[in-house]
């Protein structure tokens, strides 16, 4: 109780706290009355002002006005406030930026030179004026956000002599500028316009810095750009730096002519284990940072797979499986990496690869190299349900556009006629047959066989597993897994093409767009394979009625009156119809009855004559009998000329 009374008394006496010398915690909102007597502090202030003024010899002024008059500095209107803030910002920029005045002058010139309606002479004069102002400060201007763009415009429109002068000034700082976010664009533009000597000098200056720049998010872009512009020997000089420390330190060793890493190691006497460790120390940070878009990295990874042991190769495949691989398959080396990952990856890793392609299948299919990876997946992965859900479902939405595209038609043709050289080409076929030596079961089987033949074993005693017949069976099964999975290829193909509904939609698309596909350079291959039922007649048992409708649609186009770009006159369509007559007897009979019966004389000249002659060239005797009675008189009269090979056979 006593404590409470003391607190209450303190609250009552709070108003007298100032008099008693106790400072109150509450803010004092009422201004205290001005005292008429000057305090000791005021006298001291006056004395100080007297002393200061007396030094200068001026009359002392005892002015009671505040030192900082806020009322005089405050702007009267909003316009004055904006003007005052602008001036303050300009002053701060001048203190902070060394070349602020120069940048302002260059910005004024830039606004004039980048206009579209300016003449070349006026632009050239403005560019020369800007470059003259920048001389001596170009490396500093190149790292500025705005000025670097001005310099890029000047490099684009200036003369070759002026461009060479800029290159000479930038040359000592190119490696530093290559890592700058703004200057990297200028460096790329300088390399695009560089002469062969300048490009060679820049690539030689990269010696010893390739690995460190590749690990930099911005610097790796410059390395990739230089790799893209370089010739074969220059590309090799950039690549070999990633192989070994010796090649990174000694420039003379780089001039070796051996292109493959497996050839360089014995040529220079390098240790394979040391090379593998050095490459792993470079590759692992790149994969962790996600720097996987560049072709030089893809080439280095391919070479790494050629010497990597089983564990290291499997680890890299595990890291690449997923979204990373989608960003890599747009290059030739990247597509080979994708094929190797699909081939040697486990079922879980293949699943990650396919899931990573979700919503990107169309873009991959239209890509020159990505379409080969899709063809590899369609012919090797056993999980057809996942493929139908992600890949086939997206392909079905763009069948016509895919069929008319060179790369887009490749996955469709791989299902219709697998591994056909005419459609894939020799390079893509060789890519599909690539393997990683350490993961290839064929190599393991060859090693076991060679050891058995040479009698080499542990202390001249062979292991039981090396000659066990069950073990040899397992090797054969693993070899089959590498070549395309455990599932029968025909069963896998039927599940993807027929059971998924892709074939039915493909036939409907061909019926609706028969004329456009026949006249197309790439669509003609798709409609031909569909009309013939595909390889091994995979479409005929279940979709024979649909195929007959397609045959009638093609025959109806051939039965139209003769006009410009008729399907029997067009170069592509006439040859496709001729092939269909030769290879598909059911189509030949429908076409004869619909389009050619009684009209052969009209089509006996030009490209259409080859279509008419196909009836007599057909290996099917029933097709020959259909047309022989009408075509033989035309041959005898000379209206229709048969190929010489056919005449000699008769």
Automatic annotation (TrEMBL):
<dbReference type="InterPro" id="IPR001313">
    <property type="entry name" value="Pumilio_RNA-bd_rpt"/>
</dbReference>
<keyword id="KW-0677">Repeat</keyword>
<keyword id="KW-0810">Translation regulation</keyword>
<feature type="compositionally biased region" description="Basic and acidic residues">
    <location>
        <begin position="1"/>
        <end position="23"/>
    </location>
</feature>
<dbReference type="InterPro" id="IPR016024">
    <property type="entry name" value="ARM-type_fold"/>
</dbReference>
<dbReference type="InterPro" id="IPR012959">
    <property type="entry name" value="CPL_dom"/>
</dbReference>
<keyword id="KW-0694">RNA-binding</keyword>
<dbReference type="InterPro" id="IPR033133">
    <property type="entry name" value="PUM-HD"/>
</dbReference>
<feature type="region of interest" description="Disordered">
    <location>
        <begin position="1"/>
        <end position="97"/>
    </location>
</feature>
<dbReference type="Pfam" id="PF22493">
    <property type="entry name" value="PUF_NOP9"/>
</dbReference>
<dbReference type="GO" id="GO:0006417">
    <property type="term" value="P:regulation of translation"/>
</dbReference>
<feature type="repeat" description="Pumilio">
    <location>
        <begin position="169"/>
        <end position="204"/>
    </location>
</feature>
<feature type="domain" description="PUM-HD">
    <location>
        <begin position="105"/>
        <end position="456"/>
    </location>
</feature>
<protein>
    <recommendedName>
        <fullName>PUM-HD domain-containing protein</fullName>
    </recommendedName>
</protein>
<feature type="repeat" description="Pumilio">
    <location>
        <begin position="205"/>
        <end position="241"/>
    </location>
</feature>
<feature type="region of interest" description="Disordered">
    <location>
        <begin position="445"/>
        <end position="487"/>
    </location>
</feature>
<dbReference type="GO" id="GO:0005730">
    <property type="term" value="C:nucleolus"/>
</dbReference>
<feature type="repeat" description="Pumilio">
    <location>
        <begin position="356"/>
        <end position="393"/>
    </location>
</feature>
<dbReference type="InterPro" id="IPR040059">
    <property type="entry name" value="PUM3"/>
</dbReference>
<dbReference type="GO" id="GO:0003729">
    <property type="term" value="F:mRNA binding"/>
</dbReference>
<dbReference type="Pfam" id="PF08144">
    <property type="entry name" value="CPL"/>
</dbReference>
<dbReference type="InterPro" id="IPR011989">
    <property type="entry name" value="ARM-like"/>
</dbReference>
<feature type="compositionally biased region" description="Basic and acidic residues">
    <location>
        <begin position="39"/>
        <end position="91"/>
    </location>
</feature>
């Amino acid at each position: 109780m006593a404590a409470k009374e003391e607190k209450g008394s303190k609250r009552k006496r709070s108003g007298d706290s100032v008099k008693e010398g106790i400072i109150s915690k509450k803010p004092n909102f009422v201004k205290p009355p001005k005292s008429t007597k000057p305090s000791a502090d005021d006298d001291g202030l006056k004395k100080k002002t007297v002393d200061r003024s007396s030094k200068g010899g001026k009359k002392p002024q005892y002015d009671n006005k505040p030192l900082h008059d806020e009322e005089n500095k405050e702007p009267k209107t909003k316009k004055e406030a904006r003007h005052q803030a602008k001036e303050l910002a300009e002053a701060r920029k001048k203190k902070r930026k060394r070349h602020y005045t120069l940048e302002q002058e260059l910005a004024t010139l830039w606004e004039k030179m980048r206009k579209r309606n300016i003449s070349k002479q006026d632009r050239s004069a403005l560019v020369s004026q800007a470059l003259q102002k920048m001389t001596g400060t170009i490396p500093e201007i190149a790292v500025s956000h705005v000025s670097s763009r001005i310099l890029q415009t000047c490099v684009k429109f200036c003369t070759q002599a002026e461009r060479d002068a800029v290159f000479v000034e930038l040359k000592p700082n190119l490696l530093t500028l290559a890592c700058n976010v703004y200057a990297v664009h200028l460096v790329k533009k300088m390399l695009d316009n560089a002469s062969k000597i300048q490009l060679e000098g820049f690539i030689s200056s990269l010696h010893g810095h390739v690995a460190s720049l590749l690990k930099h998010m911005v610097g790796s872009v410059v390395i990739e750009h230089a790799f893209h512009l370089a010739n074969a020997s220059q590309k090799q000089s950039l690549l070999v730096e990633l192989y070994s420390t010796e090649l990174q330190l000694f420039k003379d060793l780089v001039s070796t002519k051996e292109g493959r890493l497996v050839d360089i190691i014995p040529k220079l006497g390098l240790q394979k284990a040391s090379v593998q460790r050095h490459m792993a120390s470079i590759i692992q940070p790149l994969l962790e940072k996600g720097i996987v878009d560049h072709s030089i990295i893809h080439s280095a990874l391919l070479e790494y797979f050629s010497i990597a042991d089983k564990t290291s190769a499997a680890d890299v495949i595990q890291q690449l499986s997923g979204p990373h691989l989608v960003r890599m398959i747009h290059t030739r080396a990247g597509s080979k990496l994708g094929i190797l990952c699909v081939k040697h990856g486990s079922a879980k890793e293949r699943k990650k690869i396919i899931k990573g392609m979700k919503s990107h299948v169309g873009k991959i299919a239209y890509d020159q190299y990505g379409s080969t990876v899709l063809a590899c997946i369609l012919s090797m992965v056993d999980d057809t349900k996942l493929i139908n859900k992600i890949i086939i479902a997206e392909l079905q939405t763009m069948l016509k556009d895919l069929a008319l595209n060179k790369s887009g038609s490749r996955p469709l043709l791989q299902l219709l006629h697998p591994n056909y050289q005419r459609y894939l080409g020799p390079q893509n076929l060789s890519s599909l047959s690539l393997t990683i030596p350490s993961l290839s079961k064929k190599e393991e089987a060859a090693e076991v066989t060679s050891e058995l033949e040479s009698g080499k074993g542990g202390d001249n005693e062979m292991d039981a597993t090396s000659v066990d017949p069950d073990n040899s069976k397992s090797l054969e099964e693993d070899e089959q897994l590498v070549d395309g999975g455990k599932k029968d290829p025909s069963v896998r193909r039927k599940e993807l093409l027929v059971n998924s509904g892709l074939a039915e939609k493909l036939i409907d698309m061909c019926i609706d767009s028969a004329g456009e596909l026949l006249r197309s350079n790439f669509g003609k291959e798709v409609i031909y394979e569909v009309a013939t039922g595909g390889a091994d007649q995979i479409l005929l048992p279940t979709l024979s009625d649909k195929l007959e409708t397609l045959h009638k649609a093609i025959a109806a186009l051939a039965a139209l009156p003769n006009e410009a770009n008729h399907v029997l006159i067009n170069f592509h369509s006439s040859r496709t119809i001729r092939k269909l007559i030769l290879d598909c007897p059911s189509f030949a009979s429908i076409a004869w009855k619909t389009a050619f019966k009684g009209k052969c004389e009209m089509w006996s000249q030009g490209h259409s004559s080859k279509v008419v002659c196909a009836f007599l060239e057909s290996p099917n005797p029933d097709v020959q009998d259909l047309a022989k009675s009408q075509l033989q008189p035309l041959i005898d009269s000379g209206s229709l000329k048969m190929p010489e090979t056919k005449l000699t056979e008769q």
